[in-house]
Recover the amino acids of this structure.
């Protein structure tokens, strides 16, 4: 039984590893992500758009990866069979992924707010100066 669990855990780890690698390399190709917004004459607006595009791309990757991590933690939790160490490990993964996802989405909200303010034509930085 121990050998079966060992090979099953390795199989799942290899599957998750290769799925992650494939998704990281092929997600931009599938969605035709144009991260760099200009080719020759780049200015302040393109720099702001570039930061927004990079963060949006990373969010597009982080949400599926967090879903996989949540599923992995759920699998560990369901197969723990009363083993307190496995249950603690699953809870730890749940918390770490949850906090990480909240941090990523908070960063996106901050960058989105800043870029929408800086790219708005009616917004003038230091109006009275």
């Amino acid at each position: 039984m121990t050998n079966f669990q060992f090979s099953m855990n390795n199989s799942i780890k290899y599957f998750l590893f290769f799925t992650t690698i494939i998704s990281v390399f092929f997600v931009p190709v599938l969605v035709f992500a144009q991260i760099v917004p200009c080719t020759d004459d780049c200015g302040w607006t393109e720099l702001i758009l570039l930061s927004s595009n990079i963060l949006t791309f990373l969010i597009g990757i982080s949400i599926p990866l967090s879903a996989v991590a949540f599923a992995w933690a759920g699998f560990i939790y369901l197969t723990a069979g009363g083993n307190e160490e496995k249950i603690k490990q699953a809870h730890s993964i749940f918390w770490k992924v949850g906090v990480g996802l909240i941090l990523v989405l908070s960063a996106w909200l901050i960058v989105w707010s800043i870029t929408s303010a800086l790219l708005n034509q009616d917004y003038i930085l230091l109006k009275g100066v």
